[in-house]
Amino acid sequence: MGATIYCLCNQKGGCAKTVSSISIGIGLAREGRRVLLVDVDSQGSMTASLGYQQPDQMETTLSTILSGIIMDEPLPPGSGILHHEEGVDLLPANIELSGMEVTLVNTMSRETILRQYLNTMREEYDAIILDCMPSLGMLTINALAAADQVIIPVQAQYLSIKGLEQLIRTIAKVKRQINTHLSIAGILITMADMRTNYAKDIVELLHMNYDGKLRIFENIIPLSVRAAETSAAGKSIYLHDPSGKVAAAYAALTKEVIRG
Ligand SMILES: Nc1ncnc2c1ncn2[C@@H]1O[C@H](COP(=O)(O)OP(=O)(O)OP(=O)(O)O)[C@@H](O)[C@H]1O
């Protein structure tokens, strides 16, 4: 049956999509799963956060792979995949991916180019994690069209119910029209400082709006400067601050994701 494909998606910027994609991915690898991380963001933040400091100098990235499929000249399987020391594989991205948004618009089967690629990789892995960019453009639609499960990170410091509703409607539309397998795994509350009333109010508001409709993961990711440091450190929270609260929260969340 092959890998389960998870897509971390929210058009709101800075809600910890990248840190969560890496932490869940490496969390799954630490649980013995074979994991492929795919950077679907032209900012290349996932690539850089895993310690590949010069993404723009990489020869083969997601953009090269997608171009190959569009031109009907697919690259050999495994092209461009990097093996990271923390036990995951990574298909990197860089700025070239930004041109893909435009290219895809005029491409046949434009919503399913990424799916075509991932279908060729599915047997090699138990989980594939897609880190989306903060928009609902063609690349994010491609990620949703390829995914089985969507994890929606929501920042406990800022909540836009309107934005969340727009995202949920987009997911429902993709499910109806292109990918009947798609479902929402849950809302993941991130960067929460639960000592503040503000964070408590947001958690309560989310439960008020979504209990009975959508799962809200029990494990909330705390706000911590140690987590913010991981991107520059080029390693995951499990190595950067192994006994800290963020590592513990992501490890517990990973188990919640596995339980399904
Ligand atoms: N638990 C946390 N506590 C404190 N800071 C965090 C935490 N998680 C992530 N951050 C920081 O918040 C910022 C945004 O995180 P991240 O890059 O993962 O978000 P994103 O949603 O992927 O961003 P973008 O929308 O730009 O792709 C980063 O500087 C990151 O280091």
Automatic annotation (TrEMBL):
Its taxonomic path starts at: Bacteria, Bacillati, Bacillota, Clostridia, Lachnospirales
UniProt-listed SUPFAM superfamilies? P-loop containing nucleoside triphosphate hydrolases (SSF52540)
Q: Which domain of life is it from?
A: Bacteria
Q: What is this protein called?
A: Sporulation initiation inhibitor protein Soj
Extract the coiled-coil ranges from the record.
none
Q: Which InterPro entries match?
A: AAA_dom, DNA_Partitioning_ATPase, P-loop_NTPase
* Subunit and partners: Dimerizes in the presence of ATP but not ADP; ATP-binding is required for double-stranded (ds)DNA-binding. Interacts with DnaA.
Q: Where is the AAA domain?
A: 5-184
Q: Which organism is it from?
A: Sporofaciens musculi
Q: Which family does it belong to?
A: Belongs to the ParA family.
| Gene3D superfamilies for the chain | P-loop containing nucleotide triphosphate hydrolases
Q: Name one Pfam family in it.
A: AAA_31
Report which reactions are catalysed by this protein: ATP + H2O = ADP + phosphate + H(+)
